[in-house]
Design a protein that fits this description.
110 residues, alpha+beta, Aspartate Aminotransferase, domain 1, six-stranded antiparallel β-sheet, 28% helix
């Protein structure tokens, strides 16, 4: 399945104001990189992939529309969550994109 183009367009609109953004095909979808670190992605299986602090994952997955990131049957990937964008307001969606961007920018450049 291809990534959700609506999610990709929403991310593009929000992330375009940031300098040095690189859009890249990955994980069966699209990812947006800041200084070489992935910030957010439009998942091939649907959803918005968001980079977060690894120690925040357990709390975040208790929120509506948020789940762990990883293959079924495998250990979840640390430091990422998948957010179901349906049902999120534009402001909530923007907050998730900002969260991913802030986390990516907090890491050393690659």
């Amino acid at each position: 399945m291809a990534y959700d183009e609506r999610v990709a367009e929403r991310v593009r609109e929000l992330i375009a104001v940031r300098p040095d953004v690189v859009e890249k095909k990955m994980f069966g979808g699209l990812g947006w990189m800041l200084r070489g670190n992935m910030a957010v992605g439009a998942m091939g299986r649907g959803g918005l992939l968001v980079r977060v602090e690894p120690d925040e994952v357990e709390v975040l997955i208790r929120e509506p529309h948020v789940d762990v990131f990883g293959r079924e049957g495998a250990k979840p990937m640390s430091g990422f969550v998948v957010v179901e964008p349906d049902g999120l307001s534009d402001a909530e969606f923007a907050d998730w994109v900002d969260r991913g961007c802030d986390r990516a920018l907090s890491l050393p450049p690659k």
